[in-house]
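Whiteboard transcription, Tuesday session. T.W. wrote the structure tokens on the left side:
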């Protein structure tokens, strides 16, 4: 038997307070070992409650306000 591989889910976001909670809840309901799953939210400078929602659901929040061309 083998161990489940570690998986990182990276979610880019901007002002997604209305939807990010639903997304993170869906990920937490996956049938995958919690210790092997990492959720990283990369934020582009949100002005709403996105950060608070991510942190309250155990996600990693990484602000990255730099414009992407």
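and on the right, the sequence the group agreed on:
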């Amino acid at each position: 038997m083998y161990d489940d591989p570690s998986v990182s889910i990276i979610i880019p976001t901007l002002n997604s307070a209305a939807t990010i909670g639903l997304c993170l809840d869906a990920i937490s309901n996956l049938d995958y070992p919690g210790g092997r799953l990492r959720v990283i939210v990369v934020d582009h400078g949100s002005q709403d409650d996105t950060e608070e929602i991510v942190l309250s659901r155990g996600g990693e929040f990484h602000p990255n306000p730099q414009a992407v061309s």
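Someone added at the bottom: Helices lie at 20-28, 50-56.
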